[in-house]
Design brief:
immunoglobulin domain, Ig-like_dom_sf, Ig_sub, 11 strands, Immunoglobulin-like, 6-stranded mixed beta sheet, sodium channel regulator activity
C-alpha cells in the first residue's frame, strides 16, 4: 500500500472551491444591490373623487446611471403602463418619457439621495381599484430589475373605526395599574409607620432599663454616695 494512502483527502477539489467562490461573488451583488419599496402599507383605501399618493423609493449600493422606472396598473380585466421615465444620475431629477393618464403626477425627487419616484393619482374613480406596481431597472448593475406592488381600493366612504372596546380595555388596564400603585404606596406607608413605632418602643425599653439599674444600685449605675462616718 502506498504510504500516502492513509492521508486525509481534501473535502473539496480546487475546481469545487473555485465554483463555490464564483457563485458567492455572483450572488453578493444581487443580495446587496437594487431594492424597491412602496412602504409598509401595501393595501390602501381612498375615497372616490379624491386623490392618493402612491409611494415608491429605491436604493442601490452601487449607485445608478440612466436608471429606468415605470408604474403599471393591473386589475382583473386591464393592464396598462401609467407613467415611464429615466433618471440620468444621482444629481438629477426623474424625467418623464411616457404618461398614459393626465390625472397622474410624478412628485418624487432623486436628488440628495431621496431616490423617490412616487406618483399622485387625482380624481379617483371606482375603476381605479387594482394593483399598482413600481418597476426599476438599473443599467449600472447589468440591467438588474426590481419592483414592489401596492393594492388600491377605491371606496364610497371610509368606514369609521369604533374604538369603544379599545378605550374600555385601556381604561380597565389603567385602573388596575393605578390600583396596584396605590396598594404599593399604602404598603410602604404602613411599613414606615411600623418601623417608626418599633424604634420608639426600643428607645422606651432602653430608657426604662437604665432607670431601673440606677434605682437598684447595680454595677454600672450611679448610686447615692453616703457621707463618711465620723471617728
Amino acid at each position: 500500500m502506498h504510504r500516502d494512502a492513509w492521508l486525509p483527502r481534501p473535502a473539496f477539489s480546487l475546481t469545487g472551491l473555485s465554483l463555490f467562490f464564483s457563485l458567492g461573488l455572483f450572488l453578493l451583488p444581487v443580495t446587496l444591490s437594487l431594492e424597491v419599496s412602496v412602504g409598509k402599507a401595501t393595501n390602501i383605501y381612498a375615497v372616490n373623487g379624491t386623490e392618493i399618493l402612491l409611494p415608491c423609493t429605491f436604493s442601490s449600493c452601487f449607485g445608478f446611471e440612466d436608471l429606468h422606472f415605470r408604474w403599471t396598473y393591473n386589475s382583473s380585466d386591464a393592464f396598462k403602463i401609467l407613467i415611464e421615465g429615466t433618471v440620468k444620475n444621482e444629481k438629477s431629477d426623474p424625467k418623464v418619457t411616457l404618461k398614459d393618464d393626465d390625472r397622474i403626477t410624478l412628485v418624487g425627487s432623486t436628488k440628495e439621495k431621496m431616490n423617490n419616484i412616487s406618483i399622485v393619482l387625482r380624481d379617483l374613480e371606482f375603476s381605479d381599484t387594482g394593483k399598482y406596481t413600481c418597476h426599476v431597472k438599473n443599467p449600472k448593475e447589468n440591467n438588474l430589475q426590481h419592483h414592489a406592488t401596492i393594492f388600491l381600493q377605491v371606496v364610497d366612504r371610509l368606514e369609521e373605526v369604533d374604538n369603544t372596546v379599545t378605550l374600555i380595555i385601556l381604561a380597565v388596564v389603567g385602573g388596575v395599574i393605578g390600583l396596584l400603585i396605590l396598594i404599593l404606596l399604602i404598603k410602604k406607608f404602613i411599613i414606615f409607620i411600623l418601623k417608626k413605632t418599633r424604634e420608639k418602643k426600643k428607645e422606651c425599653l432602653v430608657s426604662s432599663s437604665g432607670n431601673d439599674n440606677t434605682e437598684n444600685g447595680l454595677p454600672g449605675s450611679k448610686a447615692e454616695e453616703k457621707p463618711p462616718s465620723k471617728v
